[in-house]
Amino acid sequence: MNLYGVHPYVKLSPERFYLWTDSPIYAVVHKTLSMTARSCMVSANASEVDLEPLREDPPFPEKSACILNCLLEKINIVKSGKFSKSGFMTTISPLVFTNKKKMDHMKTVSENCDKEVNHDVSSCELANEITSCIYKYAPELHFKN
Fold first, then answer.
1. How far is CA 62 from CA 66, 99, 122, in A?
2. What are the recorded GO MF terms, alphabetically (predicted)?
3. 3-state class of 79 per DSSP?
4. What CATH number has the domain bearing residue 113?
């Protein structure tokens, strides 16, 4: 794995590579999300082992999904038990604001997920719904390391 969590033999598209390598706040965002997820372990009655599945693709096991739901609430992607388009855009904007094409793409992601996410599920399952949708339209947002 390299600094960006990508195996050296994996080729990234220029757009996907740009999102992370040209973002000066990548490391800060990654560290903050990791620390926040760890703080959510308490509310989910989870352990360090329950964080591991979050490096994979959803759907995540129950406790992992509950950690993720707590994280999404803390960063305002989930508000009042629902996916928040504005929360998503506020959270993602610092990573893409210098690239209009990426910003427009993330706006489309937020609109698609607002329409597609099933809100008639448990809060933990909502985290699976949201991340599945986001990774479907923006796989470059998946922190796999």
1. 6, 36, 10
2. odorant binding
3. strand
4. 1.10.238.20
Does 96 fall in a domain? Answer: yes
14: cis peptide before it, omega within 30°?
Answer: no
* Cβ(128)–Cβ(135) below 8 Å: no
User: Helix, strand, or coil here: 71?
Assistant: helix
Residue 60 in any domain: the answer is yes
Separation CA 73–CA 81 (nearest Å): 8
- Domain count within the chain: 1
